[in-house]
Amino acid sequence: MLTKLSPDLIRRRLTSLFPAALIEDIARERDVVQRHRTIDITMLVWTLIMGFAVDGEARTIAGFQRAYSAATNQTVARSSFYDRFTPALEALLSDLLEHALEEVAVPHTIAPQFELFREVLIADATVFRLHRLLSEFPATHSDQSGAKLHLVHNATTQSLEQFQLTDECTHESSQLRTGSWLRGRLLLFDLGFYSFRRFALIEENGGFFLTRLKSNANPLIVGKRRKWRGRAISLPGRRLQDVLDNLTREIVDVTVEITFKRRPYAGKQSTDTIEFRVVGVRNEDTDDYHLYVTNLPDEFTPRQVAALYGLRWEVELLFRELKSLYGLEKFQTSDPAIVELLVVAALLTLVVSRALLGVFQELFPETVFPRERWAKTFRSLAQLILEDLGQSFGYPPPNLSELMFRDARQPEKSRLLLSERVAEAFMRRSSA
User: Fold this and answer.
1) Is the four-CA dihedral 375, 380, 386, 389 of positive or negative sign?
2) What is the pLDDT of residues 7-18, one digit of tens each?
3) Which stretch is the leader sequence (predicted)?
């Protein structure tokens, strides 16, 4: 079976995803390339992508410089390396990320019912801490700085669909725009995006949605969606919260009428009503209902609706991968432009990891590759992959003894070691 795994398999997939010519062309368009190339832009890009995965390394420019030197076996002046971290480099990385999002896709179908949708999308956001002096990223606490990464994850192709970086105080709901792009797509989201007006707009644009029903929501029941045997409690015409405590059935499946306010127009705000489906599945541990509001058709049973909402956990796992494995919360910089650059680099790391996972899934369709286990393995081999890429571009293998000497020596001759400072103090006392 392992005969399928040639030594250059990973290298070929990565260089096909980002050919050197593509990186060079975009770099020239973005005015990133220097006239006198002390730094190879192609290897710098790969250093930012693979260097983000190196285990235990703080996300500092010095750390990326060490990874670059190890992969190219070149000594680079610190100032020259730091000067490369510009808005133009961030634009280059953003262009490459956009390119990768179109290339990296692993289509799959969870069940036949999913053929009803063009795609299944999951919207969410996560907060991460930044250097406290970054006033451009205000946090909810005045003595801190924080950023919020907003993502739309495509569960159908296992890729990122949209992303946006804001300060921590920006509400996630403001970053999710509804429109015709939602036609035929199913959107899963949590209560942070909860809005009756948003539900109506998704429906009016031909899309589907699924989210939890707020605990204080008490819509009017206008119809039942299935028959019950015996003397079941009649629900139409009653408020949802008024009947839940009296129900003993395992599931609830009703049509409700929701009243909401339209967006203000010409100084006036109108009120409208719309009907949606509310599904409830009894939780055996708490003996209450998990309630969902949706416009999914009846071919999705209540238990399938509840299971489908569980798919939203995929984006939570994605955020955990970005934070715990790729160091999204380890930015050691007070420069807002570098923060934006490093966020794009982290997303590129994630996309590259997914691209390699797709190769192995295609070669070994019967083998299971758990996402977190895959990500940890990818991280542990990231520096080796980077050095292999460097050799494919003509750089020699790293001179380990030279790297040890260069990085471990005292950078400033005037800086004394502790023992030298103590000896100097005694010498001064003796001479006095």
Assistant:
1) negative
2) 899 999 999 999
3) none
Question: Which alpha helices (H) appear in 30-77, and where do they start and end?
Answer: 41-51, 61-72
Count H helices and E strands in the chain, helices first.
14, 9
3-state secondary structure at position 406: helix
Q: pLDDT digit string (tens) for 204-239?
A: 999 999 999 999 999 999 988 776 554 567 788 889
SS3 (DSSP) at 349: helix
**CA gyration radius for the chain?**
27
Contact (CB, 8 A) for 167 and 148: yes
Tell me the per-residue pLDDT of 153-175, one tens digit each, with 9 for 90 and over: 998 887 888 899 999 999 999 99
Contacts of 409 (CB under 8 A, 6+ apart): none
Distances (CA, A) of 61 to 89, 231, 335: 13, 70, 12
Neighbours of 47 (CB within 10 A): 29
The pTM of the full predicted model, rounded to 2 decimals, is 0.83
Q: Does residue 77 surpass a pLDDT of 70?
A: yes
